[in-house]
Design brief:
This protein is of the alpha+beta class. The chain has two domains: about 1-140, no CATH class; about 160-295, no CATH class. Helices cover about 40% and strands about 20% of the residues. Strands 1, 2, 3, 4, 5, 6, 7, 10, 11, 12, 13 and 14 form a twelve-stranded mixed β-sheet that branches. Helix 1 (about 1-15) runs antiparallel to helix 4 and helix 6 runs antiparallel to helix 8. The longest helix is centred in the middle third of the chain and has 22 residues, at about 160-180. It is globular.
Length: about 325
């Protein structure tokens, strides 16, 4: 899997001309840029898809498709395409386009040094870091506006449908007593609470725990976590899920339980935060994110890499001395 990610990144880099490389490649040690992410409209560092040739755009999609699972890649492609739908709904006043997604590289594969990339635009942010044979890919944000496109009350398109349906199924399965613990507010926040903060700190967990849910609902809560982690290629998702302690999860819901009204939920664990919000545009505008407290932007991988490098150098100095 790592070989595929590396090859796909090489294909993109090799397609770039000299001036494009200059605009595309930044140092992996540029912590400020690496942590500066967003899911709102606006220009980003790097090169926009709309500025690239057809083969270069396909190379960017190839990078995404190697890191993402097939269903998450389809979701990401749908999110990008929705920019044109939204632009039409707005009468073109904000000049949105599906080419308004940027790719920036942090270093390049080919040595023992860490490297990575980010593909980002409105409602999409995929942040990848590779170090010492391991891959990190959080924060991972997907949003959709419109969240649902309908015909005579029937859904035609809804790329983030399961993110809502699985949580509603959990509320139904847990029963009234646990539901009273899970619903912590009748009012939903206007957005995911962490926004695009460069770092998040573990907050006091709220809501209901697996021990309070009963086995069927507790298993579904673990399935919801797995669903978010399965946005990644399954080999990566397996590694991430192995680090989760299902017994230490908390699930909380805020806002209305009625469909079509604003709602929000959060899943927390010691190293896990999942947020979902659907409140804007009459609850037809979804934001979702998966984050890791100490591992966002590959910070844990980079710390381990540079810590090992310093240890190796200091050992060499001691032995030579």
């Amino acid at each position: 899997m790592l070989h595929d990610v590396t090859d796909a990144t090489h294909r993109y880099i090799n397609s770039l001309a000299g001036d494009q490389r200059e605009h595309s490649i930044r140092a992996i040690t540029d912590d400020d840029l690496r942590h500066r992410w967003a899911y709102t409209p606006g220009t980003r560092p790097g090169l926009a898809l709309g500025e690239l040739r057809r083969d270069q755009r396909k190379a960017v999609h190839g990078m995404l498709a190697t890191v993402l699972s097939p269903h998450a890649y389809a979701q990401a492609a749908a999110v990008m395409a929705l920019e044109d739908v939204l632009d039409h709904r707005e009468g073109g006043r904000r000049d949105r386009h599906n080419g308004d997604f940027w790719t920036v590289l942090f270093g390049a594969p080919g040595s023992d040094e860490p490297w990575g990339w980010r593909v980002e635009g409105h409602h999409l942010s995929v942040n990848v870091v590779v170090a010492d044979g391991r891959v990190s890919a959080t924060p991972f944000f997907l949003g959709a506006n419109p969240a649902r496109v309908t015909y005579r009350g029937r859904v035609v398109g809804q790329p983030l449908r399961l993110e809502e349906e699985l949580a509603r199924e959990l509320l139904d399965r847990m029963g009234p007593t646990a539901r009273r613990l899970a619903v912590v507010s009748d009012t939903a926040p206007h957005d995911i609470r962490t926004g695009n903060a460069p770092r998040i700190s573990p907050s006091e967990p709220v809501g209901v725990t697996p021990a309070q849910l009963g086995k069927p609902a507790a298993e579904l809560l673990a399935d919801i976590v797995r669903f978010y982690l399965d946005r990644l290629a399954y080999e990566l998702a397996d590694e991430e899920f192995a680090q989760i302690d299902p017994d230490r999860l908390h699930f909380s819901w805020e806002g209305s339980l009625r469909r079509g009204e604003g709602h929000y939920y959060r899943v927390q664990g010691p190293e896990l935060l999942i947020e979902y919000d659907n409140t804007a545009n009459e609850a037809n505008h979804v934001h979702t994110v998966w984050r890791r407290h100490s591992g966002d932007f590959g910070d844990d991988l980079l710390a381990a890499h540079y810590g090992a490098s310093r240890h190796t150098v200091s050992r060499g100095v001691a032995q030579n001395g």
